[in-house]
Each structure stands twice: as C-alpha cells, then as structure tokens.
Amino acid sequence: MPSFRPRTRQTFIVLIVATLLAACSPRQMVVGSIADELAGQARASENDLDLAREASAFYLKLSESVLRSDPGHLALAESVAGGFTQYAYAFVAFEADRIEATDARSAERLRGRAAQLYRRAHRHAMAALEKDSPGFTKALSAPEAVTPKLQPAQVGLAYWAAASWGGWISLAKDDPDVVADLPQAVRLTQLAWQTDPAWGQGALTGLLATFEAARPGGNQKQALAWFDQAIVQGGGRSAGALVGKAEGYAQPTGDRALFENLLKQAVAIKDAPESPQALHNEVMRRRAAWLLEQAPDLF
C-alpha cells in the first residue's frame, strides 16, 4: 500500500508533471526523475489506513500517467500495479464482502469495480515485464517445455502481476476466458518464487499457498506447508500470512478452532514505529476482525 505524507516535493512533482507535454529533449530525463520519486513514495511507511485511502486515487492516477510516459520503469510499474491491487482488495472488494448481506446489488457493483482495478493492475505489470523481457508473455502461455526467465529485479513486479491476476480471476467466474488464465497466474507465481522464495517476507510464499489451495486439483498438504512457511518468513509480524492461512486453509477444511486462533493472532499483532508492514497489517487486522464476527455463519 503506497504511503502518503505531506511533503513540499509532492507539490513540485505535480507542477513538473503539468509541464511534461511541453518538454522537448529533456523530457525523458524529467519523467525518469519523477518516476523514481513516485516509486520511492510507495516504499515509505504509513500506518493511517483512512489517510492512505483518501490519498490513493491521486497518487495512483499521477503515477499511472508518468508510467505511460516511461513504461520501462520497473520500480514505478511495480508501485502502480501494487497500488491498484491493494486498493481493489482493501477498499473495494472488502467493502463488497462487508455489505453483501444487507445490500447485494451494491456489493455486486463493487466487485465489478474491483475486478476492473485488478485487471488494470495486471496489465500494467505484464506490460512492464514484456517491455523488460520481450517475449515473456508468449513464453508464459507456452507449453511447460518453454520456460520463461525472471530476473531478481523483476520478482516484485511478477508478484503483483500474479496477485492482481488472481484477484481478477476470482471475481470473473462468469467470464471463462479470464478464468482459463488461472494456470498462467499460478505458473507466474511459481517462477517468481523459484527466483526469490523469500521475497516480501512471506508474501510471495503466501500467494503460492493461496493459489495451490484454490486451484482445481490443488495439493492441500503442500498448500499448508507453504502457508506455514509464509508465517515463518514473516517472523510473526505479518497479519496477512495468518489471515491467508485462515481463509485459504482453515475455513475450507472446516477447522473453526484453527480459523479463529489464526485471526486472533493477526488482530493482536503490534507494529513497530515506521514499520514498512504497518499499512498492510492494518488492512489485514481489519479483515481478521470482520472474519471473526462472521465465523458463526462461515462454519
């Protein structure tokens, strides 16, 4: 989740962006500098979820505009893809889940919006991967004998490409063309994990576990091992790893005691000052608390 702090340089960025269309030879240099700055903003810490939500739309639209001018900027592409994915998950899809029981029509509308945001994130990420490694998209959909390559610097981008793909697929059950891409999303996650299994302090391992648990014919024993590995990689400080195991393993297997225990652990996590996980953890703590309230209806 990108962070948003009031800074004078943000105003400077806006002024510079406004003049980009009039720039000539220095244009790409200026765009590159702005892209660096915006990508850096996404890595800053923030623990106020409501503030992040209020600032997200501006940040994402600005970043997306700059990315279109510099589509090969991997760090900004990762930031944009991650920003749209997290916005869709935390503020749109979750709201749909919360109101479904009382307003099914609005929930359906929100899920449609979330699907489009996931789609947007996915396309930005895949476009950047393709630009950085021409032929990557085709190789990803080719038979297993053709193995696309991922570089370590591309792993974060691949993670968000796969995560947004999974979110899009989960909300597109009536679109067989989108659902048919699930094996490619799983393959992309596996490629990223093989390149850097520790990426994101367990986030990538957790995504791998979620796909394994959800895909047709998935190995639940393997999924459980990956969920546990993700929790270990998070050092006990990742609410997302705990919520992932609760929803991806405990709930489908009908283990309510494990489900509630994991969610209570997630809610109890306290973040250190300036923790880069603070905003993500707050998102997951809120979801964990809501899931605990829903437990009687889920089991």
How would you describe this structure to a colleague?
- The chain has 299 residues and is mostly helical.
- The chain folds into 2 domains: 1-192, Serine Threonine Protein Phosphatase 5, Tetratricopeptide repeat (Alpha Horseshoe); 197-299, TRAP transporter T-component (Serine Threonine Protein Phosphatase 5, Tetratricopeptide repeat, Alpha Horseshoe), CATH 1.25.40.920.
- The chain is 72% helix and 0% strand.
- The chain has helices at 8-18, 27-43, 49-69, 74-99, 104-132, 136-141, 155-170, 176-179, 182-195, 203-214, 220-233, 239-250, 256-268, 278-298.
- Helix 2 (27-43) packs across helix 4, helix 3 (49-69) packs across helix 4 and helix 5 (104-132) packs antiparallel against helix 7.
- The protein is globular.
- The two termini are 31 Å apart.
- Residues 1-9 and 18-25 have low confidence and may be disordered.
